[in-house]
Write a structure and sequence with these properties.
The complex is a heterodimer of chains A (257) and B (276). By secondary structure, chain A is of the alpha/beta class. Chain A contains ten helices and ten strands. The longest helix of chain A is centred in the C-terminal third of the chain and has 17 residues. The radius of gyration of chain A is 18 Å and the shape is globular. Chain B folds into two domains: 53 residues, no CATH class; 197 residues, MetI-like fold. The chains are: A alpha/beta (257), B mainly alpha (276). The interface between A and B is medium-sized, with 25 and 20 residues.
């Protein structure tokens, strides 16, 4: 899996500088992600998880070290990346149809075929009937599905998921986890999930990178067994290995505290 | 129940409880409207009769019947429409330009944070300054015709528009901007697709404020200089001590200003009907 990394972080550090001084957000971060792999970054708040995503998305530049996507250095936002934020952030003044076109409009993928692709995705999420509705007429779960369509519409190879389910209720969240995994696996997308929820990380990921804070760095990487990676997130929670790994990761995260 | 009043008040009811609710709601609205009309009639009657019985000095405050008679006479003779047209056009032009220029400045300072920092103290001073005090300067600079008066109307609304619109640009959720950036949006796209549409309700609501401000600017401008317009009629009325003429003008201003305000309010609800 690692012979062909799509993402690689080499000795990446990030320091934020403000009038009050410096804050070291990340220190010497090294990891790679293989094509089609689903990796979860798990850690307490303030460990620089979101900084990693912002760096990868090309929104900010590292203080030192370098980041590569398919051997190309990341310096600006790239087409390969699709970013899902903590909330859906649908534009209230646009209909669902026009919301899912936002990325296409901005990246000037104005072809009929691109629009049709987005509408087909919407259909796949069973939201076709709502394409002329406004976001405020949809439930939280539906809105997050629309956000997923908007992200996938530009056909990124890599998805960055920044706690995308944190604003949803538990039932909706479990259903969406399955839907996201199914959708991504089907298209062989690579994904990087940021979360502080151990169960979510185990249920969704192939591999978990545990992070530590002050400054943010990688503490340990845990490869999950096929019994957990081959099962959809909801089913994973029933597998005996789930508890075992939960305990293991729990212990790992609470060490030296 | 076949009582026609009752069935009118409960029309469209879905159930008995809903009917009772509708009836209460509609009766209340009806009473409010009734009291509003009664208040108006009482005011006019008091004014009219008060003037007849010398409770109010008709020389100073005129009288509804006289105002109405003069209004009708001037309207029939065609003396009024020129004044109305001039003032309404000046107001509309001043209002539109004030809003457009104010928004344009807001866009410029949103675009350049440096410019925004530089201009900040100037905006504070200009906002605090009573723009009416600049009136004589405008008349010297732009002439006594339309120019000076429209300049007055613009001056009075432009700074507040800039400040309000710029504030709303800055209050746009930074996550929406981040969202656009993840798709690789440039500054122009961020503005066009996110910031401007997100601030649209605020811009529309400044229109409502600016209608009122444009009226102030135009009337003051006409006080100072003009040879026509409703503000001119007021000043002329005072000079020849024809207070009836002053009240006729005020009456027309009240109607025109309300119509314009209603027009903007209608535009607002049409443009914003799909917003949260």
């Amino acid at each position: 899996m690692k012979n062909n990394p799509i993402i690689s972080f080499n000795q990446v550090s990030k320091t934020y500088i403000t009038l009050d001084g410096e804050t070291e957000a990340l220190k010497d971060v090294n990891f790679t992600v293989g094509e089609g792999e689903f990796v979860a970054l798990l850690g307490p708040s303030g460990c620089g998880k979101t900084t990693i995503l912002s760096l990868l998305a090309g929104l900010i530049l590292p203080t030192s070290g370098s980041i590569f996507i398919r051997n190309k250095k990341v310096e600006t936002p790239s087409r390969e990346i699709g970013y899902m934020l903590q909330q859906d952030y649908l534009l209230s003044w646009r209909t669902i149809r026009h919301n899912i076109m936002l990325g296409l409009e901005i990246s000037k993928q104005n072809g009929k075929e691109s629009y049709q692709y987005a509408l087909d995705l919407l259909d796949e999420m069973e939201l076709s009937a709502f394409k002329d509705h406004y976001p405020n007429q949809l439930s939280g779960g539906m809105r997050q599905r629309v956000a997923l369509v908007r992200t996938l519409a530009t056909r990124p190879d890599i998805l960055l998921l920044d706690e995308p389910f944190s604003a949803l209720d538990y039932t909706t969240r479990l259903r969406l986890e399955d839907l996201v995994i199914e959708t991504l696996k089907k298209r062989r997308k690579t994904a990087l999930l940021v979360t502080h929820d151990i169960a979510e990380a185990i249920a969704m990921a192939d591999r978990i990178i545990i992070m530590d804070s002050n400054p943010g760095c990688i503490k340990k990487t845990v490869n999950l067994p096929p019994s957990l990676t081959k099962t959809l997130p909801f089913g994973s929670r029933e597998v005996p290995d789930f508890q075992k790994y939960f305990q293991l990761i729990w212990r790992e995260m609470n060490e030296n505290d | 129940m076949t009582n026609p009043i009752n069935s009118y008040l409960t029309r469209g009811a879905k159930s008995n409880a809903h009917a009772a609710f509708l009836k209460r709601h509609r009766t209340r609205n009806f009473v409010i409207r009734l009291v509003q009309i009664a208040l108006f009639i009482a005011f006019i009657l008091f004014w009219e009769l008060g003037a007849n019985y010398r409770l109010i000095d008709p020389l100073l405050f005129s009288q509804p019947s006289k105002i109405w008679a003069m209004f009708a006479e001037m309207l029939l003779k065609g003396n009024l429409h020129n004044h109305i047209t001039v003032t309404v056009i000046e107001t509309i032009v001043g209002f539109i330009l004030g809003t457009v220029f104010g928004t344009a400045i807001a866009i410029a300072i949103w675009w350049s944070p440096f410019l925004s920092k530089v201009l900040d103290p100037y905006l504070v001073v200009l906002n605090g300054m009573p723009k009416v005090a600049l009136g004589p300067t405008f008349i010297v600079a732009f002439g006594g015709g339309y120019g000076g008066i429209i300049a007055m109307a613009i001056a009075i609304s432009i700074i507040i528009t800039t400040i309000v619109v710029y504030t709303s640009f800055r209050e746009v959720d930074s996550n929406l901007i981040k969202l656009a950036q993840t798709f690789g949006a440039n500054q122009r796209q961020i503005f066009g697709k996110i910031v401007l549409p997100a601030s649209f309700p605020t811009i529309i609501s400044t229109l409502k404020v600016n209608v009122g401000l444009a009226w102030v600017g135009v009337i003051v401008g006409e006080f100072l200089v003009s040879k026509q317009g409703l503000g001119y009629l007021i000043i002329y009325g005072f000079q020849v001590f024809n207070l009836t003429l002053v009240f006729v003008s005020l009456f027309i201003i009240a109607i025109c200003a309300s119509l314009m305000y209603q027009g903007v309010a209608a535009l607002e609800s049409k443009l914003l009907k799909n917003r949260e």
